[in-house]
Amino acid sequence: MNFTKTTSYSLHVLAYMARHENKIMSASYLHRQLDIPYSYLRSVLLDLSRKGLIMGVKGRNGGFCLGREKKDIYLSEIVNATEGIDVLNKCIMGYEKCPFDNVCIFHSAWTRMRDEILDILENTTLADHLNSTDISKSNINQ
Question: In whole angstroms, what is the distance from residue 77 CA to residue 89 CA?
C-alpha cells in the first residue's frame, strides 16, 4: 500500500515547517528547500491551507506556517486532507469493492494490517513523527 505523491509531499512540507515552526516560508523558499516542483507545491499548499493544517500570512514577508501546533496535527489528518483516509479501505488485490461472499486469501491479513496502520496514523502527531525521525537520524550518525 502506497500513499500518493501528494501525500508524500504534504508530509515533507509539514515536517519541514514543524522543524522550523517559528519561520514563515514562501512557496519559492519551500520549493528550493524541498525540491518539490513549484506548481505541484502550490497545489499542495492550497490543499493544506484549505484543511487548516497550514495558514497563509499576507504581506511583503508573507508565506505559510503551521496552522496549529505540531503536537495537535495527526498523520491521519494529513492523509485525509490529501487523498482521503478511505484509501485504506480499498482491497489490497485491487478490487473496487471487497467481495465478502468470496474473500481473497489476503483479506484477514490486510484487515489486521489496515487496522494497525489506521491506529498509527490516528495516534501519531507530527511532533511524534519528528521525534522518531530525529532519533533515527541520531542513531545513524553514531
Answer: 16
